[in-house]
From TrEMBL:
Coiled coil spans: none
Keyword Phosphoprotein appears in the UniProt entry: yes
Domain Response regulatory: 4-118
Stored Pfam families: Response_reg, Trans_reg_C
GO molecular function: phosphorelay response regulator activity; transcription cis-regulatory region binding
Domain of life: Bacteria
Protein name per the record: Phosphate regulon transcriptional regulatory protein PhoB
4-aspartylphosphate modified-residue sites: 53
Keyword Kinase appears in the UniProt entry: no
Any one Gene Ontology BP term: regulation of DNA-templated transcription
């Protein structure tokens, strides 16, 4: 069955280019040219992926992303923007975007990102089949099936990518991962120059689960190498 993709993009040429490339991947693609119609379409159907422009007439991409993440269920969101500023990127990720692509982008990179998101979704679906799995480490509790996290009994709100990153770490306590390995194994792609994506997510994850993000207990830095998740305390 073809994957269903919604492209919300007000530049008709870019929207058509994306549509043609995804059609070559076997996707069924719908287009929306403004924020209001795009949001309505995203809420009316179940999509396997939403490709979302940041700067849209009417309702902007950040607001659409926020509203989609407030709904039950999960759909991957790839955000597009002509603005490459750090603040825009961080805001998009904070609102729940899974990945971020700056215009102009190459067709090959777009296809690689889309394939990576599909692989992540397929992998998560396969892992979630391990019903009832719960990972506990100190005061941190990760409910894999429900995709919920609690710290000392209090719920922790994570974006989809933050959850995937934390789960990857928690499944391999004590193992050191480089930034490029995390890009490949969590995001599903590996491109030099995108290690800052890992740094941003690590910092935001620490801000949510660490008592003191400057002296992290769970996600630890291994200088000159990468990061590791602390070993589970022995009982």
């Amino acid at each position: 069955m073809a994957r269903q993709v919604l492209v919300i993009e007000d530049d008709a040429d870019i929207a058509r280019l994306v549509q043609l490339q995804l059609a070559d991947l076997g996707c069924a693609v719908r287009l929306a040219g403004d924020g209001a119609s795009g949001l309505a379409e995203a809420q009316a159907r179940d999509y396997d992926l939403v490709i979302l422009d940041l700067m849209l007439p009417g309702i902007d991409g950040l607001e659409i992303c926020r509203r989609l993440r407030a709904r039950p269920g999960y759909v991957p969101i790839l955000m597009l923007t002509a603005r490459s500023g750090e603040l825009d990127r961080v805001l998009g990720l904070e609102m729940g975007a899974d990945d971020y692509l700056t215009k102009p982008f190459s067709v090959l990179e777009l296809v690689a990102r889309v394939k990576a998101l599909f692989r992540r979704v397929d992998s998560l679906a396969s892992r979630s089949a391990q019903a009832g799995q719960v990972i506990e480490n100190g005061g941190l509790r990760i409910d894999v099936e429900r995709r919920q996290v609690a710290l000392d009994g209090r719920p922790v709100e994570l974006t989809a990518t933050e959850f995937d990153l934390l789960l990857h770490f928690a499944r391999h306590p004590g193992r050191v991962f480089s930034r490029s390995q995390l890009l490949d194994q969590v995001w599903g792609y590996s491109h030099s120059g995108y290690e800052h994506t890992v740094n941003t997510h690590i910092n935001r994850l620490r801000a949510k689960i660490e008592a003191n993000p400057n002296r992290p207990e769970y996600v630890q830095t291994v200088w000159g190498v990468g990061y590791r998740f602390r070993d589970a305390p022995r009982s």
